[in-house]
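> example.struct
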């Protein structure tokens, strides 16, 4: 119960609406299951409470899966919270009236009285309802691939297993603890992403870079990268296209070889950190990724493209072009750590090498010092 409250407070504070609703749902239904188990499910009241709670859990969970994230503190969020807790609140009110629920046993459907096995308390009706809800939750988990979906799927599965193993007190208790714990982990993962991951490109942000630099060893190189004429893209095509360019460049930079770790430094600048690699290997990897960005077939909305879909369709039928292919290039500066040098100084030297690359004509890799590729050619000669 306390873990569910903690999960709700965390989720509400960071506006994770579905996780907050799931935590409130877990806390209330978990309390009802505990109350039924404490009295003993052989008692009529406790059995009906347990049975109806086991039906509420998958039904409400399925409803939560299709909800959008809204702050639980706004008007719509409060309405959703009330709708989520109302069935459990009604059950709790009836539970508090002695004999109220026990009188329902003769009216229960046989599927609510038949369990899946001698050692299981999961009735057939609950199993029938839970199966498609679990399947939907798993499908959303596999398609969306977010920690929220993983937590929602895991929490429902843990609750269903807890219902099935309620006779095994220790195991069911652990499962009921696991369910809200997964929700807490999902919120913490969201908090981490807010602090360390750039939301536009999906790559680690500058704060993550600072942590990386603090833990580097003695031998490393730092590359600073900048999108050439990025302001021109924004001025010509708009900020939406600028964001598209940033995402494309980040996707290509992620493929860098030689063990480089990519970070977004800020604006149109990126940073790649290489640890324990030969200088020549790093420069070749950077030049390869530079060429990959340059050769990427980037299509954007033409400045003269009609803004309405109808006009755009008519223009295409007349043979007009509503998009154009543009070339995106990047400039790169790389520096390697000297003895007893702090990472901040290496970043500054890499930044100077970047400006040197821009001054030399852009769309190239420049080093802070002798280029290892030239040294190799001289050695061969």
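> example.seq
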């Amino acid at each position: 119960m306390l873990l569910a409250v903690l999960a709700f407070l965390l989720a509400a504070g960071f506006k994770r609406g579905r996780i907050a609703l799931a935590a409130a749902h877990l806390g209330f239904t978990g309390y009802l299951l505990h109350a039924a188990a404490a009295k003993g499910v052989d008692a009529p009241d406790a059995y009906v409470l347990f049975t109806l709670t086991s039906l509420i859990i998958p039904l409400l969970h399925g409803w939560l899966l299709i909800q959008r994230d809204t702050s639980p503190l706004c008007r719509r969020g409060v309405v959703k919270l009330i709708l989520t807790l109302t069935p459990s609140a009604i059950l709790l009110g009836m539970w508090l009236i002695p004999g109220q629920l026990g009188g329902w046993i003769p009216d229960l459907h046989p599927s609510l009285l038949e369990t899946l096995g001698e050692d299981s308390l999961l009735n057939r009706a609950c199993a029938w309802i839970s199966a498609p809800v679990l399947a939907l939750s798993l499908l959303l988990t596999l398609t969306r691939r977010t920690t929220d979906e993983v937590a929602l799927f895991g929490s429902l599965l843990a609750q269903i297993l807890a219902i099935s193993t309620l006779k095994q007190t220790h195991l069911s208790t652990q499962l009921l603890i696991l369910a809200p714990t997964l929700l807490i982990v999902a919120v913490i993962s969201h908090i981490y992403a807010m602090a360390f991951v750039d939301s536009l490109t999906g790559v680690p942000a500058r704060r993550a870079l600072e942590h990386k630099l603090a833990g580097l060893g003695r031998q490393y190189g730092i590359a600073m990268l900048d999108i050439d004429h990025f302001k021109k893209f924004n001025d010509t095509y708009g900020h939406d296209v600028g964001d598209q360019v940033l995402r494309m460049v980040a996707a290509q930079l992620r493929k860098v070889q030689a063990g480089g770790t990519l970070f977004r430094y800020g604006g149109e600048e990126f940073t790649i950190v290489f640890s324990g690699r030969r200088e020549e290997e790093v420069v070749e990897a950077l030049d390869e990724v530079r060429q990959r960005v340059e050769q990427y077939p980037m299509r954007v909305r033409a400045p003269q493209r009609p803004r309405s879909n109808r006009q755009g369709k008519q223009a295409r039928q007349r043979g007009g072009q509503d998009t154009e292919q543009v070339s995106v290039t990047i400039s790169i500066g790389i520096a390697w750590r000297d003895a007893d040098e702090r990472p901040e100084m290496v970043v500054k030297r890499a930044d100077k090498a970047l400006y040197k690359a821009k001054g030399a004509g852009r769309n190239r890799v420049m080093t802070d010092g002798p280029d290892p590729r030239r040294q190799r050619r001289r050695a061969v000669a």
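> remarks
The chain is about 60% helix and 10% strand.
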